[in-house]
Predict the 3D structure of the following.
Amino acid sequence: QVRLVESGGGSVQPGGSLRLSCAASGSIFSFNSMGWYRQAPGKQRELVAIFTSGGSTNYANSVKGRFTISRDNAKNTVYLQMNSLKPEDTAVYYCQANIPYRGSSWGQGTQVTVSS
């Protein structure tokens, strides 16, 4: 079982920044995809940003230009740099990976709150 552990959430004012980290217990180089989802109260979980199997990145339209996903294969860690945060970015953010022969794996989530 591959474990994903998120960190870096917290509370920030609108316009502020946070960086989330997702550390995997296995080699992320072999993962089919890895990225970030979020779920706000009363809403469905949605994709935020992801590395696809070809190494390219996809972003939700709502975060394009503000969020950046990056990775450090040596540390088996994926990051989500979030700038110009808005109240509507408030959610629990989850790390997710699609792992060959093991399927989908999720982290426990980290809360991000954007409020003045």
